[in-house]
Amino acid sequence: MNRFYVGSEVGVLHSVLLHRPERSLTHLTPSNCQELLFDDVLSVGRAGEEHDVFANTLRNEGVEVLLLHEMLSETLALPEAREWLLHTQISPYRLGPIFADDVRSYLSELPFDELASILIGGLNYSKLPIQSTSIMQGMHSSSDFIIEPLPNHLFTRDTSCWIYGGVSINPMAKPARQRETNHLRAIYRWHPRFAGQDFIKYYGDEEKSYDNATIEGGDVLVIGKGNVLIGMSERTTPQGVTHLAANLLQHGQVEQVIALELPKHRSCMHLDTVMTHMDVDTFSVYPEVVRKDIKCWSLTAGKPGEVKIVEKGYFVHAIEEALGLDQLKIITTGGDSYEAEREQWNDANNVLAVRPGVVIGYERNVYTNEKYEKAGITVLPIPGNELGRGRGGARCMSCPLYRDGI
């Protein structure tokens, strides 16, 4: 199956990209986890076991699961891809010309699977078995990183997002995540599953600085019928939204982008942490953040090469109009105000639909899951005591590659 198309958030899910937590999490410590965008250190073994339950739940629902580590390893087996990725990730500007050459020479001889582990999981000075004439080794302690780990690869939703007949390879906002994008660029360009396939690259594939025009997939909801809902959060800027919208409209893949303004704080780092699509006419919403008064804009095609931007009123009405619905069903986070805040923090609103009305979510969010069930939504529960410490649920941890429209 080589089809790549995501026509909605809730249509039948056929294929998805995940990343099982591994080496990168072993490098999380209390002193560096904040810098690496985690709030806590995770039990690596337990997180892996929980992720296996997630992947197997998807497989049991008939979804094909591709794993990022394997896809990257298979991409690195191709000489052109390996050379590009090593020069991109280990540039002379990052490590200095001498040390970069020495590190690349060492890495280029490693087995592809081990090389993938290092590019994702990191490499410190104590693990480098060569001596360089560069001053870099003498300037660093053995525990310093030559290649920083990328633990946030766990959240495959953000680095790239498939929108109808193409993909946005996203320029990430935080330095701790920016190298992730190059792995997806290489996979989509060279891996046999993607190379030569008929899909559009809307945004982010060029090797250039995107400056403030950042966008992350957790803010992008493909709500269907030619519409896309995008949150402008702490990670996704109006500049990024406008660039992506212009390319989507130029390619004729969408009729409208609806952009929402979100607070810029950690508890709602992406739109999908406070709002997700669960059924054709049903959304989960955390009302403390997704309030009636949040600003909303409609972006549509204007004159050739231009985007027409119009401020809208209540965002729910904008979605109803876009989807041709008389009334949208909104399910708010469960429990009293304390329980709702706790469950939103633990990703109660971040669920992944496998088909209309059937979603995967963390079992720990008992009050919200009960509300979903009472509203006719089936919840397939997965454990998340460790995975949830990374502040991401089932939607965050998945990048759909092939999903039906509505």
CATH C-level of the largest domain: Alpha Beta
CATH topology name of the largest domain, in short, is L-arginine/glycine Amidinotransferase, Chain A
Terminal CA distance reads 21 Å
Q: How many domains would you count in the coordinates? A: 2
What global shape is seen?
Answer: globular
Q: Measured on Cα atoms, how large is the radius of gyration?
A: 21 Å
Strand arrangement across the biggest beta sheet: 9-10-11-14-15
CATH H-tier superfamily of the largest domain: L-arginine/glycine Amidinotransferase, Chain A
**pLDDT < 50 stretches:** none
CATH architecture type of the largest domain: 5-stranded Propeller
**Mind describing the biggest β-sheet?**
5 strands, mixed
Strand residue percentage: 15-25%
Task: Please state the average pLDDT score.
Answer: 91
Helix content: 25-40%
List the helices and strands and how they pair.
Layout: E1 5-6, E2 13-18, H1 23-26, H2 44-60, E3 64-67, H3 68-76, H4 79-89, H5 92-95, H6 97-108, H7 112-121, E4 123-124, E5 145-147, H8 156-159, E6 160-163, E7 166-169, H9 175-178, H10 180-190, E8 200-203, E9 220-224, E10 227-232, H11 238-250, E11 256-261, E12 275-279, E13 282-285, E14 296-301, E15 307-312, H12 315-323, E16 329-332, H13 337-345, E17 352-355, E18 358-362, H14 366-374, E19 378-382, E20 399-403
In short:
With 406 residues, this protein is of the alpha/beta class. It is built from 14 helices and 20 strands. The model has no long low-confidence stretch (mean pLDDT 91).
What does this structure look like?
It catalyses: L-arginine + H2O = L-citrulline + NH4(+). Its main location: cytoplasm. Pathway: Amino-acid degradation; L-arginine degradation via ADI pathway; carbamoyl phosphate from L-arginine: step 1/2. The protein is globular. With 406 residues, it is of the alpha/beta class. The protein has two domains: 5-67 and 151-403, L-arginine/glycine Amidinotransferase, Chain A, CATH 3.75.10.10; 71-147, Pentein (Orthogonal Bundle), CATH 1.10.3930. Helices cover 31% and strands 22% of the residues. The relative contact order is 0.16. The strands form six sheets. Strands 9-10-11-14-15 form a five-stranded mixed sheet. A four-stranded mixed sheet has the order 1-20-2-3.
